[in-house]
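Request: How about a record?
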Amino acid sequence: MSAPDPQDLAAAGPAAAAAPEAPQERRWWLRGVVPWLLYAVLLLAIAGLLLLALQVLQPAQIMHMESLLRGISQFGILCQIAAALWAVGRWRRIVAWGRRRGFVKKQEHRAVLQLRWRVAGWLGLYLLLIPIGPRRLAMAVLAWFH
């Protein structure tokens, strides 16, 4: 197919002359799947390396590593609590950012701002049930009364 003649474009008007040809639409279904596949490969590689490392270690070394990781997990819990407190404290800015990015529509803005304490409650419930857990809660209560 040949390019359109400039005289035909001039006769059709300025709008037709400025309109570019439609690009070929390529629908590649793997475009959305490839990042997830790469994440899966990365996680499998890390898991394989960890299993290889565990085969080499002695049981006493594994127990020592477990105690170190338990300390790191407590740091992770503190980071999650700090992130939840930050989200509740900066709720207006988070909603404004969501409004600018198109996540929150104009008519939803006021209602989303009023969800602050409901979100705080759900974040607190999540923190109590998942990262902190019932075992740590029971240990804290027993330590408080002991």
In short: The helical segments are 6-12, 14-18, 30-56, 59-89, 91-101, 109-113, 116-145.
